[in-house]
Each structure stands twice: as structure tokens, then as C-alpha cells.
Amino acid sequence: MLGMSEHWYALSVRSRHEFVASQQLTKKGIEVLLPTVTRMKRWSDRGKAVTFPLFPGYLFVHVRPSAETFLKVIKTYGTVSLVGHEPGIPAPIDPQEIQALKLMLAHSNDIDIYPHLWEGARVVIKSGPLKGVMGILATKQDRHLFVVNVDILGRSVGMSIDAEELEPV
Length: 169
Fold this sequence. Notes:
By secondary structure, the chain is α+β, with helices and mostly antiparallel strands. It folds into two domains: 7-107, NusG, N-terminal domain (Alpha-Beta Plaits), CATH 3.30.70.940; 122-168, SH3 type barrels (Roll), CATH 2.30.30. It has helices at 18-27, 67-74, 95-107; strands at 7-13, 31-33, 36-42, 47-53, 58-63, 79-82, 92-93, 122-125, 134-140, 143-150, 155-160, 166-168.
């Protein structure tokens, strides 16, 4: 395994343990990427800037692909498992995706996470008065539209909506 290059892997961590796991992994000499965003959190008596993980429940580690290294990672307090397409087989992340993420984090203060959506995807509204309503994601003039079809009439109705309010069906 000597000479193998390092790869980025997604690491699932226990709920609300992103920062703790990141610190523990760093103490072990493992390179960690924990993308965060700062948001104003409002309470009834005050407001405060709070830092949140961009991907709750996940962080990224840059390690050599070996059983010994993977074991060192998952034996760290707060960690659950390395993410892969098949159970027990961690999948490396495309380095261009990590580079793009790092660039976005370095050059923007207004980053949000969105579910993996595409035009034509069947989606459901996840909160608010329309919670549970299913439709299709469409775009019109660079805006996201939530579209509900009335098949019997051969018509559809649509409304603008933030992608963060939607999740795939």
C-alpha cells in the first residue's frame, strides 16, 4: 500500500458530533474538511451568530485508501462510517468536487445546501402550509417552479419556490 495517493472520503458522524469528530481526527494527524456556514440564530430575547455544519452528520477526510487507515478513522470518537456505494467499501470523492466546495467556501458568505434536484424531478414540499404536496420541479426564466399537474384538464399550475423547501420523492 506504500505509494498510494490520498483521496477524499465522506465520513458519517453521530448527530451533532461534527465538530468533536473533526477535532479528534485532527489530533490523530488526519486532514479534515468540515464545511460550515454562519447564520444568525434568533431567540425571543436576542440574536447570535452561530456556526453550523453545511452537511449535518458528515465531514470529509483526506487519507490513503487502506484498511488500517479506514479503521483509524472510524475508531475515532463521534464517527459512524465511511460513505460508499456498497456497505463497507468507502467511495473516494472526485477531487474536483472538493476543490469546488473549498472555492465556494472561501469566496462566498451566502452558501446553502440543497437536495439533489434536477428539472423534471418529482418533489414534495417539506414545510409550511403546502407541506406534503407533491409536484414536479421546473424552471422558467432562471427561476425554480413547483408545478402541480391536473391531468384530467391537461393543465398545470406552478409557483416560484426555494429549492431548499423541496425534497425528492
